[in-house]
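Troubleshooting: if your tokenizer reports a length mismatch, compare against these two reference records.
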Amino acid sequence: MNTLSHPAVVFIAAMALAANPARAAETPAAADLPPLSMVTSAINMYPGVAGARAGIGYEEANRNRLTTGPHETTMRFGTQTRQDSIINRTMQEWDVLVERPLRVNGKSELDLQLGAQGVAQARLAVGDARHEAGRSLLRMWFGWLRAAAQVMHLQEQKTLLAKQAGLVARRVELGDAPRQEQSLANAAVSQAEVAVLQANLRQEVAASELTNTFPQIVLPANPPLLEPQPLTQAVDAWQDKISEHNHELAMAHGEVKRRETLAQRARADRIPDPTVGVRYASERAGADRIVGLVLSIPFSGNLRQAGSEAANAQSDIALQREAAVRRRLTAEAAATFTAASRSYDTWQQARAAATSVEHNAQLAARAYQLGESSLTDLLAAQRLAIEARLSSTVVQLDASEARYRLLLDAHQLWDLDED
């Protein structure tokens, strides 16, 4: 039996498409994925995404801090007593100084740029967190699909063996088969039951991991299974799309720009900020009133020079990290493309092989009914058939997952951008 032509599978796929015709028309192959509303809710509520979104508030506050600047207005108050021996008089004197450092040499503009760059990086971090959450969801979903497919095939094998055991028991009653064959058939059924129990356990574990990580995902009663679609574009086209929309690469590039701005800020800081103040003093018991300006200029030394050199080195490091991220993404895209392309070709071969092996199993069943072969031969043929069908289904899911991974990385599957 060809798994893809199974009536239940066809019905499930048809119902999934009919439930959301607009979405089906947009991406017909996505019917074997969770509904878009569930995916959006699951990604938005993922703790990593919520944490990254909180980072935007932090960077906005940091932007306000940079806009205001590091300097604050300072007031100094002093008092003293003057003893005049000539006139034999004690006089109270006091003075007030209000001063504030001023950012010079374009530091205010550079701080504004740093604040805006920090907010932009935080928004990209949200997109990157959404992307990683989407990858995890996709991986866990197909892990559950593989486990569910294994349960389906092993359950079919159990049903077939149980039916076969009934026919053997009937032949033993009629004296057409030895009792040893009945024991062999019953043992095969028992083994199939154990295999089904183990497969159910693996499916439950996969379902638990998925639903506990993404509680918004509701698993369907019957897992959908559709034919994978072939890739229609070359690997370099996918690499370009993934690089164009990748948040991690955009963050690495943004970090290069931020480090360059920090290096400019460190160079500008080699000219210290002067402090300007206004002084008002009352001397000789108010007889003298003094108003003046105060200017304080620090001397630049080796400390500021070293800070500038360190900022330049950090800029070079960020540039190399961007190159490393770009190279890694290019390699990952090529690997995923190869997996999707080769898995699709392998699936077509596996499907043809499963059809051939299943035909041989049907011939073996017919031969056993006619007394032309043993039960051992029949059970071996049936075991090979179920293994071939299961292998075909696993490769089929591998091809679909790899293709969806490409679409996800290229932002053509789910909307992963932060509004």
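Reference record two:
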Amino acid sequence: MRVATLLCLATILAGAAAGAELATKKALTLEIARGMAAAGEEFARKNGWKVAIAIVDEGGYLIYFQRMDGAPLSAVDLANRKARTAAIFGRPSKAYNERIQQGETGVVAIPGVLPFEGGLPIVHEGQVLGAIGVSGVTSQQDGMVAQAGVDAFARMVGK
């Protein structure tokens, strides 16, 4: 009886595997990343701000980076870390600052979290494709520049 059960199970599993399909995965392109950064830069220039802008994939790995002339050197690392936070955790980096302000100080112990505004996930059809991170001015202003980049993404993909 055991052998018959195992053979039956093996047949079922083989049939399920034969019909398995790979998922179709959307991904950010260099062209889209450049367009997002350009929109962020344009918004920053109109306001007289000098920032660094990082665009990362869903794993937090850099796709595109630019630092405007005169942007602080510290903005390089901070923009990347804000983007990575937003991509890996799928929420704005600002959300972690809000949790800290509500008394959840343990948030600072979460590896990879940078709890400052300026990192926004890039979401398409419910899937996080990556994130944009901005640094160089105040956290709120960084967030506004990042939002300009996300808005450009929405225009580029038609949503």
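Descriptive notes for reference record two:
- Residues 17 and 108 are 43 Å apart (CA to CA).
- The two ends are 57 Å apart (CA to CA).
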